[in-house]
Amino acid sequence: MGLKRKLFMTSVVLMLIAILPGLPPKTVFPFKPINIAPVRPLTGVLAPNQLINGAERLHEGGLLQPEGVIVRGNVTYVTVYGGKILELGDQGSVRTVAKLGPECVGTYSERICGRPLGIDFDTKGNNLIVADPYLGIWQVHIKTGEKKLLVSKDKAIIEDGTGQSSKSTQRSITTRQPNIPNGVAVARNGDFYWSDTASDFIFEDAIQAVLCNPSGRLLHYSRADGKSRVLIDEVYGANGVVLSPDESFVLVGELGGQLIRRYYLKGPKAGTHDVFIDGLPGAVDNLNGDASGFWVGLVIAADENNPSFIAMLAKFPNLRRLLVRLFVLAEAPFRLWYDTTGSDFALWVTHHIGHLGGLVGLFPDRGTVLRMDWEGNIVLALHNDDTSSHVISQAVPLGKDQLLLGSPVNQWLGRVKLTPDTLAALQRQAQAAPSSAKASTGTPPKEEL
C-alpha cells in the first residue's frame, strides 16, 4: 500500500471516529464551537516583570503538589498529593492535620488516595473545609483531625437552581452528581460556595475534560440542609472561588475560558450572573481575597506568543471530539485491565493518559499572579521568568511583605519577598477600598475566629 493510500485510509478512520454517533464518551453537553475572548496583551499593568523571580523553595521535596494554601497568623495550611492536609509552622515544622483517603501505592494512584485542592477556614468552628476531586468535600478539625464528609461524590443532594424565576418556584433535584470538586469559599453563616470543574471526566483526565464543551458548575452548599444548589452551569473548567467582603457576590474562575464569572447574591441583580473579567493572560486557578481585593493564580500562562491550546481548539468541535475519543480508546484497555486485575502498571498508564501534568514541559516559562480589586480592575501583575515557581495555582500573603506560591506540580511551596514598590501599590489599594468593603459587617476576620 502506497503512502498516499495509507494517509487516505488513516484520514477516513479518523473522520469516522470523529463523527460517528454512539461512540464514547457520552458528554453532558454536545460538542459545539466555544467562544473565548482574546487574551489581553502584556502591556501596561500586565507588562512583563521579574517581581516574583527567585522564589525560595520551602520544604523542597517534602510537599508534593501543594495546590491549596491558606494562612492564619504564622501558620500555613496546604493541601498536597495523597489526600493530606498539612500544617506548616513558622519554625519549619510540618504536621499532618488529616489524611482523607487510604494510603497511596505511588504517585499515580491519586484517584484512590485523594488529592485535595481547594481549602478555606470554617466560620463555624475550628475547622478547615477541603475539596478533594476524588473524595468529595470535607470538614476537618484543625487540632484533632476529625473528619466529616459534607458533599459526597455519589450521594450528594443537588438542586438545580439555574432556572429559578422566583424563590417560590419549585426546584428540581438533579441526578448529576459532582465529578471534580475543586474550589471552596466559606460564608459567615457557615454555608460555602464551591466549584465542580467538569462533569464528563475525572480529575486525572483533565485534558479530555477541557476538550469537551463546558460542564463545570458553581454551587452553594447549605450547612443547615446538607444540600447544594447550582448557581451557574456550563462553566469552562470551574476552579477557584472567592466571596466579596460584604458577600454581595461570589466569583468563580474559569480555567478554560481564562476569565472570572460573578454571581450576585444580594441587590437588584441577585440570582443573576455575568462575566467579571475576561481575556486574562492564563488559565485561572485559585482565588483568595481580603477587604480591598483578591489574588488570582494563573496556572498556565497564555499570551500572543504562547496561545492557550484550549483556546486554539475551542472553535473546532469535531476536532475536539476526535481527540477526546482517541484518548478514551487509548485508555480503555488499560482501564479494563486495572478493573479486572488491579494491576499497578495498568493504574499507572490510565493515570498518565490525559493527565494535564504530562503537558507541563510544554507550558510557557512565565509564572503570573494578579492582584485585583472588587470592581474588576487589575491592580498589579507579578511575573517571573526563571521558572523558580511557575505553574502557580495560588498566591497568598504571608506576614507583611511575603507571598506564598502554591503549585499543582511542584514539590515545594514557593515564597517570594515583595518589593517596596509592590507593597506601596498594595497599600494604596487598601486605602482606596470603599469603606463598606473594609467594614461590611461586625463579623471578625476568619483568622480571628
TrEMBL record:
Pfam families per the UniProt record, alphabetical: SSL_N, Str_synth
Domain of life: Eukaryota
GO MF annotation, one: hydrolase activity
Residue ranges occupied by any Strictosidine synthase conserved region domain in the UniProt entry: 182-268
Stretches the record annotates as Disordered: 161-180, 427-449
Residues in the signal sequence: 1-30
InterPro entries per record: 6-blade_b-propeller_TolB-like, Strictosidine_synth_cons-reg
Compositional bias segments (type: Polar residues): 162-180
Entry keyword set: Glycoprotein, Phosphoprotein, Signal
A Gene Ontology term for the protein's cellular component: endomembrane system
Chain intervals with Low complexity compositional bias: 427-440
Phosphoprotein in keyword set: yes
Family, per entry: Belongs to the strictosidine synthase family.
Stated name of the protein: Strictosidine synthase conserved region domain-containing protein
Organism, scientific name: Anopheles culicifacies
